[in-house]
Amino acid sequence: MMLWGRINESHSVALARAGWPLAVVFLAVLASSLAVVQVTHHARQLFSLSEQLEQQTRTLEEDWERLLLERGTWASQERIERVARQQLQMKTPPPDQIQVIGNG
Predict the structure, then answer these.
(1) What pLDDT, on a 0 to 100 scale, did the predictor assign at position 1?
(2) Residues of the chain where predicted confidence (pLDDT) is lower than 50
């Protein structure tokens, strides 16, 4: 039993001497793991924001295409003539009232 006590004492002394470097390594590993968690969380937030912005971009592109189509519809020659005839009661003048103006 005496031998076992000496082994335990010498082992305790060795652990005490090695305690500071182990504590430093432990703290470094802990800090590193916390940094990994933080960086991973930040990366997920940025990815989520990126996905939201891409969805918003798709929505705006769809709206833009719809507005271009609508503008084309409102500006079509047939519509302009129809509105001129129906709402403004305009009509094409007879040929004898049409004058062609040239460049020279």
Answers:
(1) 46
(2) 1-4
In this structure, are residues 91 and 85 in contact, taking their beta carbons and an 8 Å threshold? Answer: yes
Instruction: Report the amino acid identity of residue 70.
Output: E
Of the candidates 59, 61, 39, 57, which has an alpha carbon nearest to the alpha carbon of residue 49? 57
Helix (H, G, I), strand (E, B) or coil at 91: coil
Note whether 48 and 54 are within 8 A (CB): no
The whole-angstrom separation of Cα 40 and Cα 46 is: 10
Can you give the pLDDT at residue 6? 54
Q: Rounded distance, CA 52 to CA 16, Å?
A: 54
How far is the C-alpha of 58 from the C-alpha of 52, rounded, in Å?
Answer: 10
